[in-house]
């Protein structure tokens, strides 16, 4: 899956809100000997048109500007997304050129679409007119057999395998109990051990990440690994993810070099689990029912298994944990919404015996919770859009997208367009009451993408978020301890890391840094 941030640019999170760029990228730009060159009127060798679109095709291009040679408008894009308000990048171009414009991003000439109809057309034609496209750094780190990178028959096989492990029935019969257990055990560590009033710092983003990572590992490898193994893998995995946002220079000490090393280590660890499992399966076939068992049954090679495990961890980890974190933030900032979700959860809890777990129908009955999740997905835009490559010249809305060009389908622009949502920048979960399923709305709501690559984990993600919010609101009360803001590069995240200070009172409360929690309410 492509997040805006899966780029070839160096991450420089240390600068948090600044618009400076990492050393590798600055070096890269200097090497290019930057000279501003708009598409019109530059010498041919400077005109960054690697596909050499002929005059006919160029005449039909959507309007726009290509920015600097080779790096195009990448710096402007990143600078905008390192602020809490990246919209001007898109809005200024949309106002000047219309909803579909050309630009040059991440080394490629790009058609940038803020139009839901164009997005729909592009995503539905995956594999025919367009193919998903990822930067080189990501390809090497994920591995060529990753579900996100495969095409054709292999993609279909791996996709339906993944889908079969996240379907409603699997969720209802198996996965939900696992999610519940992991959420409850994570939240139980927040409680005051002494039982008296005390203050405690809770890092909600980290806590959410523990939940989603542990769950993914469980789902993939089940009981074949213990918590120590999982934590060691998570550390390597964090290094790997850093590499997604770096220049693909495999030099010692670079982010990308460290990420490649981490990938080798992760592959070794996963391979050990696979070898152990093969022995166990040969002694007692059919004892396991996780994804690894399914991969082995389908006779995937070790290399394919490693790539699949890595890509599934990538796809579900940061996306879901960040939406959990954002949902807590939006609720904290909106007391009426918080009260309503608390009331919904309390009504469910009141109908339960002490310690009784949630049922599938309980989750399905959480109407307002689903509204909160939809609104968080719309405003949070964890996946701001996806990149596709045109496999041939494609004519659409009177324009031609030349073969080899990239199309960026911006979900973010559609989700925050006033023409699609009244007061689009206001968190208003009630807007979903009339259309709770949030199913696509004719491509005006696509947090999980669309077409043949529609997110196979969308239901699982919603269950994880619902359960986290349920146990949070029924066990704790909280208040914001300090303000924080969202930025969108290299991924959607809080500037301060959305760390929450929890002030814990005996059976009553928790507070966070940034947003906070109050107390365990007897559960
Ligand atoms: C809130 C959480 C999530 C969001 C916002 C999200 C969003 C997306 C989006 C937009 C895509 C489409 C990418 C494209 O078209 O290129 C996608 C694909 C994918 N997602 Fe998710 N996702 C989430 C959670 C999960 C989870 C929990 C899993 C775990 C199974 C998962 C697994 C995948 C996979 C494997 C793909 C690739 C499908 C393909 O390329 O065929 N996602 N996701």
Structural key phrases:
single chain; 523 residues; alpha+beta; five-stranded mixed sheet; two-stranded antiparallel sheet; 11 strands; 9% strand; disordered N terminus; binds protoporphyrin IX containing FE
Structure summary:
By secondary structure, the protein is of the alpha+beta class. It has helices at residues 23-32, 55-59, 74-81, 87-97, 116-124, 136-142, 152-164, 168-188, 204-221, 227-244, 255-283, 291-297, 302-333, 335-350, 360-364, 367-380, 411-415, 458-475; strands at 100-105, 108-113, 130-132, 198-202, 385-390, 394-396, 399-401, 406-410, 486-487, 493-494, 500-504. The longest helix is centred in the middle third of the chain and has 32 residues, at 302-333.
N- and C-termini, Cα separation: 38 Å
Mean pLDDT: 80
Overall shape: it is globular
Number of strands: 11
SS-derived structural category: alpha+beta
Query: What order do the helices and strands follow?
Result: HHHHEEHEHHHEHHHHHHHHEEEEHHEEE
Give the radius of gyration.
23 Å
By DSSP (H or I, 4+ residues per run), the number of helices equals 18
Residue ranges: pLDDT <50 for 5 or more in a row? 1-52, 497-523
Beta percentage is 5-15%
Strand order of the largest sheet: 1-2-8-5-3
Sheet having the most strands: 5 strands, mixed
Ligand species: protoporphyrin IX containing FE
Q: Helical proportion? A: 40-55%
Describe the protein's architecture and organization.
With 523 residues, the protein is an alpha+beta fold. It contains 18 helices and eleven strands. It has helices at residues 23-32, 55-59, 74-81, 87-97, 116-124, 136-142, 152-164, 168-188, 204-221, 227-244, 255-283, 291-297, 302-333, 335-350, 360-364, 367-380, 411-415, 458-475; strands spanning 100-105, 108-113, 130-132, 198-202, 385-390, 394-396, 399-401, 406-410, 486-487, 493-494, 500-504. The strands form four sheets. It has a five-stranded mixed sheet with strand order 1-2-8-5-3. A hairpin with a 5-residue loop joins strand 9 (486-487) and strand 10. The two termini are 38 Å apart. Residues 1-52 and 497-523 have low confidence and may be disordered. The structure holds protoporphyrin IX containing FE (HEM). Residues 1-2, 132, 147-148, 159, 162, 166, 312, 315-316, 319-320, 323, 382-383, 386, 447-449, 453, 455-457, 460-461 line the site of protoporphyrin IX containing FE.
């Amino acid at each position: 899956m492509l997040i805006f941030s899966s780029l070839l640019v160096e991450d420089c999170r240390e600068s948090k809100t600044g618009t400076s760029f990492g050393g590798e990228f600055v070096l890269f730009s200097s090497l290019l000997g930057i000279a501003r060159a708009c598409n019109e009127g530059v010498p041919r060798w400077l005109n960054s048109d690697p596909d050499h679109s002929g005059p006919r095709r160029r005449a039909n291009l959507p309007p726009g500007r290509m920015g600097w040679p080779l790096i195009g408008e990448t710096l402007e894009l990143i600078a905008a997304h390192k602020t809490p308000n990246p919209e001007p990048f898109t809005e200024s171009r949309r106002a000047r050129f219309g909803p579909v414009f050309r630009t040059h991003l991440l080394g490629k000439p790009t058609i940038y679409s803020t139009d839901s109809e164009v997005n729909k057309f592009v995503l539905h034609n995956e594999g025919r007119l367009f193919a998903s496209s990822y930067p080189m750094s990501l390809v090497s780190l994920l591995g060529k057999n990753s579900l996100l990178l495969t095409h054709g028959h292999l993609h279909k096989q791996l996709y339906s395998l993944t889908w079969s492990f996240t379907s409603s029935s699997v969720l209802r019969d198996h996965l939900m109990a696992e999610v519940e257990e992991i959420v409850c055990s994570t939240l139980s560590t927040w409680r005051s051990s002494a039982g008296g009033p005390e203050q405690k710092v809770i890092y909600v983003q980290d806590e959410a990440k523990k939940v989603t990572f542990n769950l993914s590992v469980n789902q993939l490898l089940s009981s074949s690994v213990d918590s120590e193994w999982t934590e060691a893998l998570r550390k390597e995995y964090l290094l790997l993810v850093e590499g997604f946002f770096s220049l693909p220079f495999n030099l010692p000490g670079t982010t990308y070099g460290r990420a490649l090393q981490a990938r080798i280590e992760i592959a070794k660890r996963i391979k050990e689990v696979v070898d152990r499992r093969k022995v166990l399966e040969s002694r007692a076939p059919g004892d396991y029912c996780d994804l690894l068992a399914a991969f082995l049954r389908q006779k995937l090679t070790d290399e394919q298994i490693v790539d699949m495990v890595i890509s599934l961890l990538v796809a579900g980890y940061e996306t879901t944990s960040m939406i959990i974190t954002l949902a807590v933030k939006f609720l904290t900032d909106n007391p009426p919404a918080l009260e309503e979700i608390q009331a919904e959860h309390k009504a469910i809890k009141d109908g339960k015996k002490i310690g009784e777990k949630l049922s599938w129908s309980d989750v399905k009955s959480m109407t307002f919770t689903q509204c909160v999740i939809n609104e968080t997905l719309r405003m949070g835009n964890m996946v701001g859009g996806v990149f596709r490559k045109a496999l041939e010249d494609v004519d659409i809305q009177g324009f031609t997208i030349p073969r080899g060009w990239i199309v960026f389908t911006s979900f973010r622009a559609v989700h925050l367009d006033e023409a699609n949502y009244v007061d689009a920048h206001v968190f208003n979960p009630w807007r979903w009451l009339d259309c709770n399923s949030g199913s696509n709305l004719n491509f005006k709501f696509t947090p999980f993408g669309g077409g043949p690559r529609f997110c196979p984990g969308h239901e699982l993600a919603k269950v994880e978020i619902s359960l986290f919010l349920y146990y949070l609101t029924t066990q704790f009360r909280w208040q914001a301890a300090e303000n924080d803001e969202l930025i969108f590069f290299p991924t959607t995240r809080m500037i301060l890391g959305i760390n929450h200070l929890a002030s814990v009172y005996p059976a009553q409360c928790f507070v966070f840094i940034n947003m906070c929690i109050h107390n365990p309410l007897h559960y």
